[in-house]
Amino acid sequence: MTKRLLLIPIALGLLANADPNDPDPALIPPEIRRMLEAAIASGNETEITTVVKYARNAVPDAADAIDAMADVWRDEKTASHSRTIREATFFDLWHGRAELGGFATTGNSQNIGLTGIVDLTREGLQWRHKLHLQGDYQESFNIVSREHYVASYEPNFKLSANNYVYGAAQYESDRFLGYFNRFSASAGAGYSAIRKPNMTLDVELGPAFRHTEFTDDRIESALAARGNLNFTWKLTPAISFNQTASAYLQRFNSTVGTNSALNAKVFGPLSAQFSYNVQYESQPPIGRRTTDTISRASVVYSF
Fold first, then answer.
1. How high is the pLDDT of residue 92?
2. Which of 213, 247, 210 is nearest to 229 (CA)?
């Protein structure tokens, strides 16, 4: 790390002594070439981009050759990454996060409890797989006051850098929200509206089918429209904000849910997170409120 930090001032010193009027545009001065090779050897994209920028300014006649050196490294990196993905099995390349914490609820129950969440993602050349598992459980004086479970799986097939089609299957259970079991299936189109290093925004829309078994013995099966939004904003290297929203709109009971989360790195793979979740049911069973909120303070492990 110390060597990398010293790289930039050393590079600036070498550039200051370089001859900007080198008569041979195809020849990169030896000191510039050594500097570029050192940056490329570090494997740090930011350092390479910075060194290339100042090298081009110092020796404009060799700009094409300087760009070519950096392009060769990028092409080799991309090829190596693609080869690793192609050779991997389905059980490789998964990464994600595990969250464990407490929550406070308002609405149908007003208690504190524990929550556990696991999110897994596998990014392939054409396929992306997402798995979500969540469980909330609370007892007050040996009486269960909250029991909420969610499991979902979503495969994406990438049509281009920003467009994809998706499939989604989800199971939910929450008798305090008014249903014992709910099964949902959906397929549609997704669009990555923003894809930047510090900010992403994915939007999905498509038809869905839902089957719900309510606590008042009602059973509903109906077509629905599903919309989903996932926004991530990296405010600083250590602090990020995430906003998700989903909606199932149908003739009978419609559902809208949002989750806002602020995450701050503590050290290594551990971070602290505060989140606020809202879930709205348009036609819950009699005696149930339409809206529940959950505030969570959690420890998150990323892997």
1. 85
2. 247
